[in-house]
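cron nightly-structures :: item 1 of 1
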Amino acid sequence: MKPFWLILFAATTFQAFGQPVSLTDIQTTTTGSSSYEGQIVQTIGVVTASAESNNLGYVYIQEEGVTEWGGIPLSGSSELSTLRIGDKVALQGTVVESFGVTILSGISSLEVIDSNITIAPIELNPEHFSSAGFFDLEKYAGLFVRLVNGSDSVKVVHSDVGFGDYRIGINTLTPDQGCNVLAGRQTGSIGSSLNVSYVSDPFYATLDGIMNVPFIEVENGDAFPWVQGVITYGFSAFRLLPRNNADFGETTTGVADRQRSKILVFPNPSSGEFNVNLSGITGTASLEVFAANGQRILSKSVTNTDRLIDLRAFNQGMYQLKIVAGNEVYTQRLIVQYP
């Protein structure tokens, strides 16, 4: 049972917001655009994807108890960065359509009215995304979805669809059947997670945003128990946006060997000194460290016997490590925390 003060707070918030419009009502459409387009609305939802440092980088909320139409991305407020997965929020914003995606923008009067709410993913066969019609797929836009295949694995059936997408399906002999997945890209026109290792091409490690985790180039046949994330639409296709590596379950075939990073950095966070295990590389590699503003603060050549990064002369905060060894690029976020 919720404590009395939380019930009172929620009631006060709802009264201040007036009568909320459900996310289902905002999203349901027979034309492709929300009937609330251009209107300022108040609504309530639970955070399923967040701007937390280990998550998608964008905020999505979902109406509790729905299996269609009830999810939406949010934009236009610095307060969104404070939200956490499972936060239940009451908010106000303007419904806008952007390249086929309904967004709640210009967020104001944002209040967290509960927390630690669990939203279970909606389970769908990935091949549904290549066989269903537009409006049967449109109802999943903004929702938290898990791609599953009964008790069997789902597989990468097309490792490079183009522009960062790859496709998850059932049978590698039918590469056109399945759901597109995007990770490793954040641009003005497309947004996905930089906390997902599984990408279509290694150059996304440092192109269109710097990945915060080691990259793994997917290959046809790579198998996962399931893959989950939020559904979005763009460039004439629906796609899944995983939030981090946990959204891939545990790998079962193909990926496990490649998942063993050739480079290990520890401890992280640290008080400024980081050990680097370079035993997986031969020859000389280049090492660079960048501050949060993009300024390069350290650059040197390293070998598998040179194993120390010393950032004690710099302020505590977040830094980006980049190591280039031959044709391979390794990136990782470094966190300096002083006692």
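cron nightly-structures :: done
Helices lie at 4-17, 23-27, 128-131, 134-138, 255-259.
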